[in-house]
């Protein structure tokens, strides 16, 4: 066991829910902690602040998140349908199913910022593998690499 909180091992689910970098599971991949800060909720740093992993792995990397957010939305619909069925029930003799449709649409709307952020985090975890000892070094264009380049001119 290590006393330093930064060296605690983080589980996959916890790192996904907390929107952490897929490589080190410690660095935050969003600059804003609050998903409902709508202007900044999808802003990401260039590299992970802990391990230096590039957050946007290639140009257009996050276009594929549509598939993940679709799957997450369907999962939420199914969960709310089952919960409604168990606690309120459905009947052909009243409007309960329409109430469920309205409530479900509201839930999806309210959860949208969370779904978008989780989709990117999950999409990153598909392609970037966990390695707790991985360190990329300082980002390109800063620090030593740049100084060496200037000296060479
Ligand atoms: Zn990282």
Give a structural overview.
With 153 residues, the chain is mostly helical. It has one domain. 46% of the residues lie in helices and 0% in strands. It is built from four helices and no strands. Helix 2 runs antiparallel to helix 3. It is elongated and about 65 Å long. It starts with 11 loop residues before the first helix and ends with a helix. The C terminus is likely disordered. Bound molecules: zinc ion. The site of zinc ion has 8 residues, from loops.
The poorly predicted ranges are 142-153
The set of bound ligands, ions and cofactors reads: zinc ion
End-to-end Cα distance, whole Å, is 48 Å
- Measured as a percent range, the helix fraction is 40-55%
Report Rg. Answer: 21 Å
Average of per-residue pLDDT values: 86
Concise structural overview:
By secondary structure, the protein is mainly α. It has helices at residues 12-17, 65-87, 96-127, 144-152. It is built from 4 helices and no strands.
Q: Tags for this entry?
A:
153 residues, mainly alpha, 4 helices, 46% helix, disordered C terminus, binds zinc ion
List the helices and strands and how they pair.
Elements (H helix, E strand, L loop, with lengths): L11 H6 L47 H23 L8 H32 L16 H9 L1
């Amino acid at each position: 066991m290590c006393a330093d909180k930064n060296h605690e091992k983080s589980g996959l689910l916890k790192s996904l829910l907390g929107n952490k970098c897929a490589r080190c599971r410690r660095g935050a991949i969003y600059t804003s902690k609050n998903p409902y800060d709508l202007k900044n909720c999808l802003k990401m740093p260039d590299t992970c602040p802990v391990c230096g992993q590039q957050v946007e792995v290639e140009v257009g990397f996050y276009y594929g998140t549509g598939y993940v957010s679709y799957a997450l939305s369907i999962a939420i619909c199914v969960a709310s349908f089952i919960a409604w069925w168990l606690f309120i029930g459905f009947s052909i003799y009243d409007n309960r199913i329409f109430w469920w449709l309205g409530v479900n649409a509201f839930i999806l709307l309210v959860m949208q910022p969370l779904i978008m952020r989780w989709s990117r985090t999950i999409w990153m975890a598909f392609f970037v593998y966990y390695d707790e000892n991985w360190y990329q070094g300082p980002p390109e264009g800063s620090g030593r690499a740049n100084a060496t380049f200037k000296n060479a001119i």
